[in-house]
Design goal:
It is built from eleven helices and eleven strands. It is mostly helical and 246 residues long. A hairpin with a 6-residue loop joins strand 5 and strand 6. The two termini are 21 Å apart.
């Protein structure tokens, strides 16, 4: 297990990814699943994608081979799910969605069950988070130091018991209330904003402002730095740091 950092550092620097990598004192590999959609070229070919008659769930032979290759490459650092999830995003009733949701719920339950006991003051923090998100609606991002200061403002008892901060932050992080990115020194108090408004725009260039298309988008779908600058303005540098830390 990683050694505990010095006490004067912010809670996020001290916990890093404890919420995902620590359980009962032993190192646990991060869980990863490969998700394919109808937009992925190998899945578009009828010869690759097939439907399981008993459940209606989709399978991809290319995806299963990709999982095996990923396990060979990264199996010592990541706990990769045995098979990919193939989702047809054009069909809201696609049976594969139910399978995927069930897996996500099981994984979340496993994280919560293994989590360290949570201080009672955490409930007060969770109840105060919606107001914090509303006050930072335009850009719901804070530095680690500022978030620690907010925690102690919401729960003054933490000023005399700051050793509880790492446990509280790990709980919020693992339960999806916030997303901590230690290397970028950022705390996203709205995970939906991070994955929708930041990562979502990068992964789906069609969502970029119309001005972006004044430049010719490459056929391979890569997003250049100047696309980010025109989309995120003065926040482009921070977005780059965030993407590198994900």
């Amino acid at each position: 297990p990683p050694q505990r950092q010095q006490q004067h550092q912010p809670a996020h620097a001290r916990t890093t990814s404890d919420a995902y990598s620590m359980a009962s004192g032993s190192l646990v590999l991060p869980r990863v699943a490969l998700v394919l959609t109808h937009r992925d070229r190998p899945v578009q070919g009828a010869s690759d994608a097939s439907q399981v008659q008993s459940t209606g769930e989709w399978r991809s032979h290319w995806g299963e081979e990709a999982v095996r290759d990923l396990k060979r490459r990264y199996g010592t650092r990541l706990d990769i799910h045995d098979r990919p999830f193939v989702l047809d995003c054009t069909q809201s009733e696609c049976p594969s969605f139910d399978v995927f949701r069930t897996w996500l719920c099981q994984e979340r339950r496993a994280i919560v069950e293994k989590a360290a006991p949570v201080p009672s003051v955490t409930k007060r923090v969770v109840e105060a988070l919606p107001a914090l998100r509303e006050s930072h609606a335009r850009w719901p991002v804070m530095t680690a130091v500022n978030f620690d200061a907010w925690l102690m403002q919401v729960a003054p008892v933490l000023r005399d018991h700051d050793h509880l901060l790492p446990t509280i932050v790990s709980h919020l992080n693992s339960n999806g209330e916030i997303v901590c990115l230690p290397k970028a020194d950022k705390v996203f108090v709205s995970p939906q904003f991070l994955y929708g408004d930041v990562v979502g725009k990068v992964l789906a260039p069609r969502e970029f402002p119309q001005a972006v298309f004044a430049y010719q988008m490459p056929e391979n779908g890569q997003v250049a730095v100047h696309h980010l600058e025109r989309t995120f303005d003065d926040q482009a540098a921070m977005v780059l740091n965030v993407l590198q830390d994900l």
